[in-house]
Write a structure and sequence with these properties.
Elements (H helix, E strand, L loop, with lengths): L1 H21 L3 E6 L3 E6 H8 L24 H6 L20 H4 L5 E3 L6 E3 L1 H5 L24 H5 L20 H4 L2
Antiparallel strand pairs: 1-2, 3-4
Bound molecules: heme C (6 copies).
């Protein structure tokens, strides 16, 4: 009996380490609204133990015979689905904040005839939620938005949705604040 127990423990150990050795660390999930979401297996296996069933397949299905489980932020917050099962502010940082920890952003430069314009996510996400810009005003993929003229912006397109002299300084002036 003891030998059998030892043997099965050994088998489980071999199986798990073989699994984690062959395991892909970085997994990218995709959302039209925010662009890619990064998840690291290695970081998580260290934080929650090498415990695959704590996530598979109840929170994230990887059985190819069944559909992928998707979730909205609302489900994560209210029903503790998906990442929200742990990212609730006590076990791990909450899905209600720290958006950029899971949804990475970077600064983007628009090349154009008026001189390059640097758009800073850091400045804007301090004041606006991702969903206020994505995907309605900007598809979250650099180069995938058709170019907009200043005339279009004055009518409320693109940056002009906010830079209208109301929500933020107007595009009819302040050229140098945007154009380097
Ligand atoms: C903290 C949660 C968590 C733990 C623990 C975890 N995973 Fe994952 N795993 C994920 C997520 C999230 C995905 C992406 C799911 C998706 O795209 O729907 C994933 C995807 C996968 C995939 C598919 C990869 C691909 O490219 O499609 C495999 C295989 C996998 N995990 C194996 C494992 C194994 C084996 C373990 C244990 C050693 C493990 N996972 C532990 C969260 C976890
Ligand atoms: C712990 C990681 C994590 C954090 C923190 C997080 N998200 Fe998400 N978010 C995800 C994942 C994963 C998905 C995609 C889920 C799927 O496809 O199953 C997603 C999807 C979304 C979506 C598309 C689905 C929907 O609900 O409309 C939006 C928009 C979004 N996140 C915005 C935010 C904002 C804003 C914040 C900060 C308040 C935030 N997220 C914080 C992981 C996170
Ligand atoms: C089984 C519990 C669990 C689930 C499910 C889970 N996480 Fe985590 N995650 C943790 C813990 C614990 C930490 C470390 C504590 C902290 O940073 O607050 C962590 C840390 C992180 C970090 C910070 C990594 C770093 O380098 O410090 C990111 C980013 C993250 N998780 C993203 C996600 C995303 C995206 C999902 C869903 C696809 C997810 N997590 C699902 C438990 C979980
Ligand atoms: C004030 C508006 C605004 C807000 C708020 C905003 N973004 Fe963006 N985002 C942009 C603009 C503008 C671009 C560049 C689009 C282009 O190049 O055509 C962009 C591009 C992106 C890209 C693509 C970057 C690349 O290199 O291709 C991602 C991913 C992204 N945003 C994610 C987010 C996430 C996640 C949030 C919330 C944490 C967010 N954004 C909040 C305006 C915004
Ligand atoms: C809120 C930021 C912002 C302000 C303020 C702004 N612009 Fe622009 N401008 C842009 C961006 C971003 C583009 C590139 C848009 C694209 O490629 O979709 C652009 C494009 C242009 C272009 C090329 C397209 C066209 O309409 O011919 C010119 C020229 C231009 N701006 C001149 C100006 C002048 C002159 C002013 C001041 C009266 C000004 N801009 C104020 C952000 C701004
Ligand atoms: C969802 C609304 C919104 C959109 C869309 C938006 N902005 Fe802004 N932006 C703001 C607000 C609010 C401020 C701060 C208020 C102010 O300075 O009038 C700001 C400030 C700025 C600043 C000053 C940053 C600083 O460091 O002080 C620049 C530059 C800027 N925006 C460029 C852009 C460009 C370029 C675009 C389009 C690619 C854009 N913004 C789209 C809301 C927006």
């Amino acid at each position: 009996m003891k030998r059998l127990l030892f043997f099965s423990a050994l088998l489980i150990f071999i199986a798990t380490s073989a699994f984690s050795r062959g395991l892909q660390d970085k997994v990218t999930m995709n959302s039209d609204a925010t662009g890619p979401i990064e998840f690291s297996h290695y970081v998580h296996l260290e934080k929650v133990g090498k415990n695959c069933p704590s996530c598979h397949n109840t929170l994230f299905n990887i059985d190819p015979a069944k559909p992928r489980l998707t979730a909205t932020m609302k489900l994560m917050e209210e029903k503790a689905g998906s990442c929200g099962a742990c990212h609730n502010g006590s076990r791990a940082f909450s899905v209600k904040g720290d958006c950029a920890k899971c949804h990475p952003t970077r600064d983007v430069t628009f090349e154009n005839d008026g001189g390059p314009v640097l758009f800073s996510h850091e400045v804007h996400t301090g004041m606006h939620n991702c969903a206020e810009c994505h995907p309605d005003i900007f598809v979250p993929a650099h180069g995938k938005n058709p170019p907009v003229s200043m005339e279009g912006m004055e009518k409320g397109e693109s940056c002009g949705a906010c830079h209208d002299g109301g929500t933020a300084f107007t595009v009819k002036d302040n050229c140098d604040t945007c154009h380097q």
